[in-house]
Amino acid sequence: MRDYQQSHLDPRSPLVLDTRDLPRSPGAMRVVERVLAAPEDLSLELIRVPAGADLALTLRMESVSEGVLVSARARAELTGECGRCLREINDTLDVEFQELYAYANTTTDETTDEDEVGRMQGDLIDLEPDLRDAVVLALPSHPLCREDCPGLCPECGAHWDVLPADHSHRQVDARWAALDQFKRTD
Ligand SMILES: [Zn+2]
Ligand SMILES: [Zn+2]
Questions:
Q1: From the CA of 167, how far away is ligand 2's center (Å)?
Q2: Which residue of 1, 66, 83, 95 lies most exposed, with the fewest beta carbons within 10 A?
Q3: Nearest bound ligand to CA 156?
Q4: Rounded to the nearest whole angstrom, what is the distance from the C-alpha of residue 173 to the centroid of ligand 2?
């Protein structure tokens, strides 16, 4: 029999699911809705759920023979920067994930690794690692302000979409330069 530490999970934490009112008979179900302040680190380099922003969770807990199956949906605002032009991006995240959390000392518990199947810690489920994995996986690694964002002029850093079509930093032809000179003295 393995020793399960139950003490480090705080049942009052919004990312800890308490299953005490879920009967341990297969088919029993509870749905919990909660809105919490997003934890730190729900982020990739260019896009993130701002820490402290509203994170809305719908959590369906279902008793199965050897544990609790959690089907979760998470929704939040995203902020980031376009990978081409660095303009601010505001988007929404809507991600679903499902995870089985096995009861201690069941066959599932004894025959699977913890990275394959989650574990109940007593009556509690620590949702944070799986939520974090699902959210980070759903974030775009190359976010764009729009699909066809033309990016920035590498010479002056201006946004291509506000520059005239003939914008260029090529050396002006000497003859045109002479004409320019002529116009200015005119
Ligand atoms: Zn852009
Ligand atoms: Zn330029």
A1: 6
A2: 1
A3: 2
A4: 17
63-122 tens-digit pLDDT: 999 999 999 999 999 999 999 999 999 999 999 999 999 999 899 999 998 888 999 999
**Ligand nearest to C-alpha 161:** 1
**For residue 176, how far is its CA from the centre of ligand 2 (angstroms)?**
19
Per-residue burial over 86-116, b if 16 or more Cβ lie within 10 Å, else e, is eeebeeebebebebbbbbbeeebbeebeeee
- Listed as own residue / partner, the contacts of 25-29 with beta carbons closer than 8 Å and 24 or more positions apart are 25/63, 26/63, 26/64, 26/65, 27/62, 27/63, 28/62, 28/63, 29/60, 29/61, 29/62, 29/63
pLDDT tens, position by position, 35-63: 999 999 999 999 999 999 999 999 999 99
> How many angstroms is it from 24 CA to the middle of ligand 1?
51
